[in-house]
Amino acid sequence: MSTDHALDHGLPDRLEPLAAAAGTSPRMLIYHFGTRDGLLRAVLGHARQRQLDTFGELLRGRPDEPYTETLDRAWTAMTGPQGKPYLRMFGQLRDTIEQQLWPDFRRQATTDWLPPLERGLAGIERPELATLVLAVIRGLLIDRDATGDTTRTDQAFRDFLTTLAVPTRPPRPSIATRRRARSRGLTRPPSAAPRAAADHAAIVDRVARPTAT
Question: Is residue 189 within 8 Å of 182, Cβ to Cβ?
Fold first, then answer.
């Protein structure tokens, strides 16, 4: 219940709201968790696991859905009522004072999301774009929080998704692959006949052309 309260209202400055939500007293909370910071770390840990489970499911690739559509749906949920409590709570950890509760949070907030994005993007054969996608999501969330401009940031994310949906040109086969294919008779080296025919035509043209007198 303390975690639910913190998600709904943010991390409190005093223990009384958390104690009331848990149906106990501040003294009992201190008895169980040692200090206020110990209690808040436990609350953050529980909330973070919920966020990983919730957002991780949103980012999971689905065989019947293009991953760009999955990301679009995930963005809508993350920035809507389902995701806002987590963004508000963990946004507080950007503040200097709150960072002391979880000093390594900023690093973990990056590395936690790369694996699910890589797995999802593998469905469109672009797992290497996980860092870029994460950077775009985080940047637009910061923009949205600072400006409150939901329309612009929503459109910016969807514009970004269109760049992921553009098919890329297949990579050129390596030299070794081309040599193996040639040795098996699957390909032939370019014929010299067209070049020879062009050279012949040029010579005939020069011979037939009248010379100046």
Answer: yes
Lowest mean per-residue pLDDT among 91-100, 102-111, 160-169, 177-186:
91-100
Q: How far apart are CA 91 and CA 109, in angstroms?
A: 11
Tokens of 110: 């990056």
Calculate the dihedral angle through the C-alpha atoms of 62, 67, 127, 161, rounding to the nearest 10 degrees: -170
- Say which residue the tokens 């775009």 belong to: 136
Residue 89 near residue 47 (C-beta atoms within 8 A): yes
Q: For residues 12 and 209, what is the distance between their CA atoms, to the nearest angstrom?
A: 95
- Please give the Cα distance from 48 to 175 (Å, whole number): 49
Boundaries of every domain in the chain: 2-165
CATH class of 2-165: mainly alpha
Residue 10: CA count within 13 A, CB half-sphere: 7
**pTM summary value:** 0.66
- For the segment 70-97, the average pLDDT, to the nearest whole number, is 83
Residue 162 near residue 153, CB atoms below 8 Å: no
Tell me the pLDDT tens digit for each residue of 127-139.
999 999 999 999 9
Task: Report the number of secondary-structure helices (H) and strands (E) in the chain.
Answer: 13, 0
Average pLDDT rounded to a whole number, residues 77-93: 85
Q: Distance between CA atoms of 144 and 82, rounded to whole angstroms?
A: 16
CB atoms within 10 A of CB 183: 9
Task: For residue 12, give the DSSP letter.
Answer: -
